[in-house]
Fold each of these.
Amino acid sequence: MTVSATPIASSVDELQEEVRELARLRDAVILAHNYQVPEVQDVAHFVGDSLGLAREGARTDAPVIAFCGVHFMAETAAILSPEKTVLLPDLDAGCSLADSITAEQLRAWKAQHPAAVVVSYVNTSAEVKAESDYCCTSGNAKAVVESVPADREILFLPDLYLGLWVERVTGRRLTIWMGECHVHAGIRPADIERWQADAPDAELLVHPECGCASQCMAFGNETTHILSTEGMIRFANDSPKQRFLVATETGILHRLRKEAPGKRFEAVSEEAICRFMKMITLEKLRDSLRDLRHEVTVPPDVAARARLALERMVQTG
Ligand code: 13P
Ligand code: SF4
């Protein structure tokens, strides 16, 4: 189908209207991660964490998914729904954590632990998922690890800090890959300490990918909560407290403030910005819907080997 070009829109409102109209014409659903820029979140049909987005992508009847997130998220949608057209407005929107292990490295690691079960965080390439038994997100890592028979060794990858947190909450020993997300690892214990001194009564919401998470676990108290991004939104909505310190990528502040407008949210580090997430703009989303670009596909043999691990993920927790 050819979609006629509309005049170049200038304002955010006009661009959003253009995007909505193109989505209608394409019969597309727009999915956006909690770290997307505000104007992209506001035009999406669904905003959520990796688990919510994977479930929504699998469940939607729409033949086209415009994915406002990073590459592994679009690949996940393409694996779970091979019949749908999955668009990523900028193919350079990658993930440094996903890049911290290759399928070849994983095969070598597995060869050293031939009896182990592989649990991969969803922040991995399709090829790594194809070598995995289970996938998980920060929203269900505990439940996924608990679903693995207790007598099996688990290779957990690629995030070191998420792995340490899962060990703590499950009481289970994991063999952990030493990868990290540069954005979350960059949030230092000193950032947390400074805020805890300034606002000791605030609730502290910490993503388990944070380098400071292990510090919070060691020194945290009842006001420290280790949560996925969607877990943070739910927690803030349900809590009677008024003030929250947020240790994750700063894009989440938009949704927190939108959904709980009377409450106060502050980033523990204003520098926690994922440049990959910010590559998706309204203009690129508009162009992607207009020209049906850039389609993310996964070779059928890789997708077939990755699907069971991903299906276990969307069905757990
Ligand atoms: P969530 O699944 O908690 O949204 O996290 C995704 C992510 O990329 C964290 O950096
Ligand atoms: Fe990847 Fe980190 Fe960006 Fe999340 S914040 S997408 S883990 S680089």
Note: Residues 34, 49-50, 123, 137-139, 181, 209, 228-229 surround 1,3-dihydroxyacetonephosphate (ligand 1) (CB under 6 Å).
Amino acid sequence: MGKILITGGAGYIASHTNVELIEAGYELVLLDNFCNSSMESVRRVEELTGKKVTFYEADLKDIDALRKVFEAEPEITGVIHFGALKAVGESVEKPLMYYENNITGSLNLYKVMGETGVKQLVFSSSATVYGDPASVPVKEDFPTQATNPYGQTKLMMEQILIDAAKALGWDVTILRYFNPVGAHDSGRIGEDPEYPNNLLPFVSQVAAGIREKVMVFGNDWDTPDGTGVRDYIHVVDLAKAHVKALAKLAEKGGVSIYNIGTGKGYSVLEMIEAFSKVCGHQIPYEFAPRRAGDIATVYGDPALASAELGWSAELGLDEMVASAWKWQSMNPKGYRG
Ligand code: UD1
């Protein structure tokens, strides 16, 4: 088993993936610029696994820093590329920052991989690349379409990678995540947003009394209860998909794309009710206008990942919300506490 470079290695999805990879026997080299994360998550991954990881504070936009990492770590055989900005609203306000960070960062990474002969990569993509799909469940061969600069960067990062992989003979797996939620069952690592843009971190903070109420963006969608429906996936299940993807890379070769979701959709109200049950009190909410750019329903078909990677989600809604609540309760100030 080689050494794996994890870009964005201190982030939410990476920290859970790191635990699973270390437990599967991989040695990790983490890279992060801490623009949306902290060293504390790395420390806690070490504490949970009892293993040390190698860490570099570096920015993917700095190609010389990246070259130094690859020079210092000649045993790197593969990369998991998480490192990117991910807030939709911010990307609409600061498109150039998003293009520069996500595209330049990825180009630099792919260039240095080319220079050093590293040929295996798992890419952290998003169901956002399907835009507003014509039908559900979404399959991997559905048309792609970006509805905001963030989504555009994910699509471009995929496309650049596919072209490079074909030209350079790389083995690449693109994982399109649906809505990652929840936390490690230890309660030691979890999502720690500066401001929660996504539903579940917001609900958690309302449950904890940090925020007053949840604003439900629209109750007039064409869905069973009028609120938006999404395919929420437990972050630990998602983390395990990376272990499967890495194991399969060399064996399968070429470029593969997989949906990583449960195949089930839950509405905003169902999420709030499930959370109210685990935290023991009703979470206050109020209906508000639809959020710009939102859509009614998205959930994925995870059959291909099941058939080819041997992966499928094992944890259900109860585990998702219970683990999110445990993380919130044990770390009211996130990693800053
Ligand atoms: C969002 C991004 C998507 C990104 C994904 C990453 C948008 C428009 N889309 O997906 O590109 O890949 O996060 O996780 O931001 N909701 C509320 N109140 C809230 C927050 C959310 O009612 O305070 C509703 C939304 O309208 C939606 C559902 O909850 O129906 C889920 O929202 P969210 O968690 O932000 O995820 P997505 O919008 O699906």
Note: The CA atoms of residues 171 and 253 lie 5 Å apart.
Amino acid sequence: MAIKDILIWPDPELAKVSEEVETIDDEIRALAEDLLETMYAADGVGLAAPQIGIHKRMVVVDIYGSEEDRPSGEEPLVIINPKFVHKEGELTWEEGCLSVPGEVGKVTRAGKVTMTYTDLDGNEQTIEAEGLKAVALQHECDHLDGKLFVEYLSRLKRNMIKKRMLKLKAEREEEDAAA
Ligand code: GNR
Ligand code: NI
């Protein structure tokens, strides 16, 4: 298990389309552990593999954000090769993204979704979700297609965010060079 660095937008790695997972092996099980650990360390409610530079169609979601706050019986979702089979309604949510730290923006997505995916045991699963869970599933799946929530914002807002992210990245690079 390891906490991985999360890529910051804009980064060409975040814009790539991720590849289907063919077999669930030790590498995939280790990736699931890393995604969960990295998500919890960053206080996120979801994380997609491409955010840590791994272009596989795999995401984790835990809308409770931490193991302490999660009701008993609920487990974090480890989702492999997700596909939406149904979307309905609309829901506008103020979204953030661990790859766009400190920024938020309103995004309108489907309000209710049905998704199929493969779990870590190789079983096909179907889940229905609404509210934050539906938002998070759609946000994470967008990452697998190289899409971030900033793409739903106005060009003006997106450009302001891009400037701040470039500044943040430059500052971090300076810190790393000094270390
Ligand atoms: O932690 C996260 N919070 C969040 C809040 C509103 C809508 C979507 C999200 S997902 C985000 C974690 C993340 O960036 N996943 O890719
Ligand atoms: Ni995100």
Note: The chain has a mean pLDDT of 96.
Amino acid sequence: MKNFIPFILSFLILSCGKTYNPAVVSARKEASDIGVEIMKKGGNAFDAMIAVHLALAVAYPIAGNIGGGGFVVYHTSEGESGSLDFREKAPGNAFKDMYLDENGNVIENMSTLGGAAVGVPGSISGIFEIHSKFGSLPIEDLFQPSIELAKNGFIVTKKQEEALKDKLQDFINVNGSESLFSQNYKQGDTLKNINLSITLDKISKNGPKAFYEGEIAEMIIEEIEESGGIMTVEDLKNYNSVWRDPIKFKYKGLDIISMPLPSSGGILLGQLLKAIEGYDIGQFGHNSVESIQLMVEAERRAYADRSFYMGDPDFNKLPVYELMDDEYVNSRMASFSWDKATLSSEVSHGEVKTIEESDQTTHYSIIDADGNSVSVTTTLNTNYGSKVFVEEGGFFLNNEMDDFSSKPGYPNSFGLIGSKANSIEANKRMLSSMTPTIVLKNKKPSLIVGTPGGSTIITSVFQTILNVYEYGMSMQEAVNAPRVHHQWVPDVVIIEEGGIDSVKDSILKSKNYFIVSLPIKSDSSGMSARSSIGKVDAIFIDENGEVSTGADPRGDDHASILK
Ligand code: GLY
């Protein structure tokens, strides 16, 4: 009865015509404002999604893109949920050992820098798929704000100045010193991208073919060939996005909807929440020794499974719900002890019984007045992707090929290792960690959440869910709270600044946990330099339908809400 009253209340309020305050949370104010403006003009959350995606491609070129790919998870006001996979694919000429030299060693930077790193981009296909299924405004109206933004320019922020400076030499090496991004931009500069505005205008008028065939496709292939790549015009022409059944599971009465393979995100999120469900983690307290131990031990086991079992479901027969089965997850946690850390060297992937048939990325969350909820994570992979800039088109190309396993056991840019399931094959999709997620409470949207951060995406989404539902934080507090991450290998617990005090640090160390405190400048344990974990952009809707937002202060992220 206790749980029934809020359900009845929210049902009555929402069925009496109360609508939600439309909101967008994304990596840039320009994009969030454009999304809300589209909804003000009568567009729905899917229309807003398209406009936000394009605005990020202009004003957030580090990860916003038309030369990359991503995933959408949605839940409609009619109660339908689903996902769209517009992930990049390997070119048709790709092959298993393409990044190895004659001695079988991985050639440094080949899967990350230059044309050979580029996967066939999916974003434009994804945008048009979404529009044909759910769009309510003309596509030209959704492109127009970004065409204008590219033409008039956006203001470079301090963080953008630093990120651009960090990659300046790569831009010069790959694209020459005259290239648009091979210049020294400072905070406050207006960065105009006229070629991108022309490209967007062409696509808006002529549809996805304008990108995947004809002159833009030829420009892409030319840039890729010049910098050592193997993609062909046929690869672009043959690209397709795929509607997939999302991952669905319950956690303590909440319904969770997340991204299926080729993202590992949904399955791992399910494994993690199921592994801790039997414990009252809320009582342990946020970032207490107990809660960190429990999360880390669940993460260690889940990431070991990731490395062995996961890849493109269109190429392999892979376990999905078997890995999230309660009995299986509990058996994996059987070796967990409160006394001391399990060593990752003692943990391998589990044995599932049967296999049934079956700072680099960016995330944005949207809700419209009717309650349509959209969660999108999109990426070029690492910052500015392959650094290959299609000069005449005004956009960067991804380096998503690095998300494949170049060689069994060899770590990618995120320290993740893989096996046969994620080996390189022609036209295959590389395994992802992106975890766009929607949580329903009493069948209504309750949380729309996701984040960039490579391997740390899954654990950041996991903790944001716990922060809201176990620790009772507001949306903004849940996003701000310091995060903790473990991914099996390397066997380190990464903790953001302010995440734990020295007493907890000593207790965890005494239990054999190897702690790396952020920020770190250089590689002390196999991890690259980094200052923070994830940039979560999320929306919370309470049981009365009140919308609140969390824009991550780790970036320039911004929430726009229509009151
Ligand atoms: N490129 C990062 C990911 O997809 O996980």
Note: Residues 8-14, 354-358 have pLDDT under 50 and may be disordered.
